Amino acid sequence: MKIGTPKEVLEGEARVAMTPDSARQLQKLGYECAIETGAGALAGFSDALYKEAGVEVVKTAAALFKACDIIAKVRVPTDAEVKRLSEGQTLISFFNPAANEKLMELAASKGANVIAMEMVPRISRAQKMDALSSMANIAGYRAVIEAGNNFGRFFTGQITAAGKVPPAKVLVVGAGVAGLAAIGTATSLGAITYAFDVRPEVAEQVESMGAEFVYLDFEEEQQDGAATGGYAAVSSPEFAAAQLAKFRELAPDMDIVITTALIPNREAPELWTEDMVQSMKPGSVIVDLAAEKGGNCKMTVMDEKIVTENGVTIIGYTDFPSRMAAQASTLYATNIRHMMTDLTPEKDGQINHNMEDDVIRGATVTFDKEITFPPPPPKVKAIAAQKKEAVKELTPEEKRAAETAAFKAQTKQQVGLLAIGGALLLAVGLVAPASFMQHFIVFVLSVFIGFQVIWGVAHSLHTPLMAVTNAISSIIILGALMQIGSGSGLVILLAALSVFMAGINIFGGFLVTRRMLAMFQKS
Asked: Less Cβ crowding at N or C end of the chain, within 10 Å?
């Protein structure tokens, strides 16, 4: 089968769904690859690079659709593109099925199988195909870069001969993939970064990246992420009011605000109101990553940058990934390639559209002339929160009883072991000569003492302690040297082996100790 990628028809879209590297990987799966002339030019991939990778370059989109069994693209297809699909043909792209019912009906009537990349379920096995996360990661990073481009000061604080420069204060609303990428970028640039999310369990992730999590004095039971596909659920009116009150408190102090809050198949919730914008300092910047869905700030104008009367810049671009076309194309093409790997289990260049597979079924919106959207919930819920059972506090009496029981059990075990050991020694003594018993008792006591010494050492101390004790305990080499002059060949062999192994202990122990001590020396 042949997989082809047309040039994106949306004005300003620079991404491409196939790169020369991904084409090579697809060919290993048994597919032939084709691309429309100039499809990768804006992302930095020339037709010559595709030809070197063994990709057929087709002159027109119409010829590409006619020649290929699978079409891979980035943006939601137009009516004209869907009309070009034929029965049994597979389309893989972003599709926005919830808002494109007529397009789904058209694709189903044509008999085309459509896989929507934004519908890939958020389970562990499907992370490699999660194009939404790939693009959100780029959008979060680029949002901070765009904010810095429009912010008239440093991100990091500086103390110079000309005076002190305070660091920028950045608030990231929403700690999903885009939010975490924005947090990481802002903190790495030296800004004081704050972050908010309706899911308090992400606070650890935020703080591990060097940002401060903004908590609300309001508790609300959140829906399990496994039931919402990994996204935040809709909050109650009371929680939303508390959230807005907190943002109003923070707004005058923030230099840059990046909003990322989106709930699938809904308009973006309003989180940054007009009065908050008016309370911000002149020169502040708002980057609204939810602009395509109406914006978290209702003053946002989609695909435009505006400056308010009080000097606040509001950026509503929706093409952040396209502004980093080479990187975005590489990641998206990799997502497509992983999807094709799942669709081609035999690596024979033939699609096996297995509707029993959670990932393939979840992403499929039309199949076999039927609309299959919305998909059933995935059978595997990899992101369900595990509820921790509260540990019961013991009373002093219960603690004392537990300690007494543990002491009695330990005493009983030790007494039992000593009794068994004594009985075994007595049994050996009844049949063994006295000279043997003297050495045997010394041996048993040595083993017992050595066991107690080593067993009582904390695990973190085993390596340094054993390095030295092995060297010291290798005093056994003296006994071997005394026996090496024996007249028996077997004794000489055993003594020689003892000298060899004891030598390893001596030199190895001190070598390990020396190397460990060197770790704590400056140089």
From this structure: C
- Which is more confidently placed, 503 or 133? 133
Distance CA(476)–CA(150), nearest Å, equals 75
pLDDT surpassing 70 at residue 387: no
- Annotated active-site residue 332? The verdict is no
Of 114, 55, 56, the closest CA to residue 81 belongs to 114
How large is the average pLDDT for residues 298-302? Answer: 94
Q: Does the N-terminal peptide bond of residue 374 adopt cis geometry, omega within 30 degrees of 0?
A: yes
CB 205 within 8 A of CB 187: no
Active-site annotation holder among 27, 127, 188, 473: 127
Catalytic residue among 15, 84, 122, 142: 122
Q: Which residue has the higher pLDDT, 446 or 309?
A: 309
Q: What is the mean pLDDT of residues 90-106?
A: 94
Of 89, 133, 322, 329, catalytic: 133
Cβ–Cβ under 8 Å, residues 156 and 191:
yes
Put simply, whether the predicted model's pTM sits higher than 0.85 gets the answer no
Q: Can you give the pLDDT at residue 490?
A: 85
Count of C-beta atoms within a 10 Å radius of residue 65? 20
Q: What is the DSSP string of 104-145?
A: HHHHHHHT-EEEEGGG---SGGGGGG-HHHHHHHHHHHHHHH
The answer to whether 84 is a known catalytic residue is no
Per-residue pLDDT band at 308 (split at 50, 70, 90): very high
The string over 459-486, giving b where at least 16 C-beta atoms fall within 10 Å of a residue's C-beta and e elsewhere, is eeeeeeebbebbbeebeebeebeebeee
> Distance (Å, rounded) from C-alpha 185 to C-alpha 155?
11
pLDDT tens profile 61-93: 999 999 999 999 999 999 999 999 999 999 999
Q: Dig out the tokens for 397 from the structure.
A: 């009496």
Query: How many Cα atoms sit within 13 Å of 493 on the Cβ side?
Result: 3
Residue among 193, 185, 202, 187 at smallest CA distance from 320: 185
Per-residue model confidence (pLDDT) at position 224: 47
Gyration radius (Cα) of the chain, Å: 34
pLDDT tens readout for residues 27-68 = 999 999 999 999 999 999 999 999 999 999 999 999 999 999
Which candidate in 47, 69, 231, 342 is catalytic?
A: 231
SS3 content of the chain, % helix, strand, coil (to 5): 50, 10, 40
Q: Is 127 a catalytic residue?
A: yes
Distance CA 222, CA 228 (A): 11
Helices 462-473 and 489-518, packing angle to 10 deg: 140
> Which of the residues 130, 197, 255, 319 is marked catalytic?
130
CA atoms of 18 and 55, how far apart (whole Å) = 10
Distance CA 256, CA 141 (A): 14
* Average confidence score pLDDT of the chain: 88
Reduce the DSSP state of residue 452 to 3 states and report it.
helix
Per the annotation, the verdict on 446 as an active-site residue is no
215 a catalytic residue: no
